[in-house]
Amino acid sequence: MDWFTASDYWLSRLVFQRALAAVYLVAFLTAASQFRALIGQRGMLPVPGFVERVPFKRAPSLFQLYYSDRFFALCAWAGCAVSAALLAGLDSLLPLWGGMLLWLVPWVLYLSIVNVGQTWYSFGWESLLLEVGFLAVFLGNDEVAPPVVVLFLLRWILFRVEFGAGLIKMRGDECWRKLTCLDHHHETQPMPGPLSWFFHHLPRPVHRVEVAANHVTQLVVPFLLFTPQPVATAAAALMIVTQLWLVLSGNFSWLNWITIVLALSAVRFPADPPGVPEAPLWYVVVVLAVAALLVGLSYLPVRNMLSRRQVMNRSFDPVHLVNTYGAFGSVSRVRYEVVVEGTADDVPRTDSDWREYEFKGKPGDPRRWPRQFAPYHLRLDWMMWFAALSPAYAGSWFGTLVERLLENDRATLRLLRRSPFPPDAPPRYVRARLFRYRYTTWRELRETGACWERTYVREYLPPTRLAETAQRP
Predict the structure, then answer these.
(1) Distance (Å, rounded) from C-alpha 239 to C-alpha 166?
(2) Which of 53, 318, 358, 432 is deepest in the core (most CB within 10 A)?
(3) Distance between CA 403 and CA 464 in Å, rounded?
């Protein structure tokens, strides 16, 4: 069946599968290390409360059937183990059907996590990992050459990721059309990286070139993915370079990395393909049936992409098979940060000994330089950026966060870089204040050593303590 498979993409498939397994591994590690404070039984948005409100058909998940923190941890660490096995190439040692089932396991486990993750799992890279992971199930192993239709469906995802993001920019903030968005983006993005300060201070003409190059990469180059080789490889390579530029300039979870993984599937690596038997009939039937399903489900994402009211990062089915993507349709001009502080004083006053909680990734101490965390995702830090934009974004969880800080809750404190209070002496009061942050200039950096300058704006949350009943042993 020469029409069904493309043997010269066997190395492309191998690279793609190992890279995707690595992304899966990071995603499951993130879930395993953070879930207790976020969605655990005593989390800020507990899973048990969510599954009581939302039926299985709207959010299919193993945790709809049963939930405990121990069971969630078991699923997350099992996902890590299977991802590591796939990274090591275990699927290649199994029969074709066995390799497909092995790839299905992390997809089912991560779908179960995302569908109960609520606000913490509401971003495009979650659906993107699930959509790509589902297609990986049908890509085959060493017993069969890569199916052409699956390779093209992977390019179809990459096309929607890039082209959808390009359209949302052109239809959104006028600064994308004026080529001025990068005058602000590196300073106001959700979680800057260690090089973001330097990117911000590039000459403005360079920023204009960056934005123009972004438009070309997202609005023109994606069409070249469906042209003959070597043009398709060149288009994918250009996308990879663009994504690596974004990796250097900020922390965007695994969004850039999984886009790179997708682009790798379109690259034809020069290598002699091994001899493999012809694809079995059952495999051909299954792959074509799945492809027909995904093509049919693409109608809503395409309609959204072409609509003047285009929305970004939306799933159109409860199992995230075909989704719409996009980011930064609008760019903030000013950066705000919520600074959380506590005091051990019995009566909170302005001159009390207020001590600041330090987060791992989000800006806090103006002298502390941002670190690189991506592809690992700091979910609380990321949502604190939204909380600074508007209290409405944090209304469902910020109060519980404060309560857990007042309790010195161990799981919550693990999400932070440092708590200013010892484990046996929690604060009496916690407050939150809103500050405006801006990057320092070169001169200010030399004189003060600080990469940020911050200015107090207003009170975000007044001094708050636990209720008397909650403080009793």
Answers:
(1) 13
(2) 432
(3) 9
Our CA angle for 101, 375, 157, nearest 5°, is: 55
Torsion, Cα 271 274 277 281, to 10 degrees, reads -30
Q: Which residues contact 122 (CB under 8 A, 6 or more apart)?
A: 313
Measuring CA to CA, how many Å separate 329 from each of 241, 378, 381? 22, 22, 21
Spatial separation of the C-alpha atoms in residues 333 and 178, rounded to whole Å:
14
CA pair distance 449, 10, nearest whole angstrom: 51
Cα–Cα–Cα angle for 238, 239, 244, rounded to 5 degrees: 100
* DSSP 8-state class, residue 410: H
Residue 242's alpha-carbon distances to 245, 248, 259, 331, in angstroms, are 5, 10, 10, 19
Task: Using alpha carbons, list the distances in angstroms from residue 470 to 384, 404, 408.
Answer: 26, 11, 13
Q: Measured between alpha carbons, how far is 198 from 202 in angstroms, rounded to an integer? A: 7
* Alpha carbons 4 and 273: distance in angstroms, whole number: 16
The whole-number average pLDDT for the span 195-219 is 97
Report in angstroms the alpha-carbon separations of 249 from 36, 200, 201.
30, 9, 12
Confidence of residue 470 (pLDDT cuts 50, 70, 90): very low
The string over 36-66, giving b where at least 16 C-beta atoms fall within 10 Å of a residue's C-beta and e elsewhere, is bbbbbeebbbbbeebbeeeeeeebbbbbbee
Task: Tell me: pLDDT of 472 over 90.
Answer: no
Whether residue 195 has pLDDT greater than 70: yes
- By mean pLDDT, which of 178-192, 257-271, 298-312, 372-386 is the weakest? 298-312
- CB of 86 closer than 8 Å to CB of 103: yes
- pLDDT of 40 above 80: yes
Tell me 459's DSSP state. E
| Alpha helices, DSSP H, located in 67-190 | 69-88, 96-114, 124-136, 148-171, 174-177, 185-188
CA distances to 167, 303, 327 from 164, rounded to whole Å, are 5, 11, 9
Cis check: omega of the bond before 363, within 30 degrees of 0: no
For 298, other C-beta atoms within 10 Å of its C-beta total: 18
Q: What is the pLDDT of residues 310-360, one digit of tens each?
A: 998 889 999 999 999 988 888 999 999 999 999 999 999 988 999 999 999
- Contact between 226 and 232 under an 8 Å Cβ cutoff? The reply is yes
Count other C-beta atoms under 10 Å from residue 296's C-beta.
10
Q: Which residues, including other chains, have CB under 8 Å from residue 147's CB and lie 6 or more apart?
A: 4, 5, 6, 138, 139, 140, 279, 287
pLDDT category of residue 416 using cuts at 50, 70 and 90: very high
pLDDT over 70 at 282, yes or no: yes
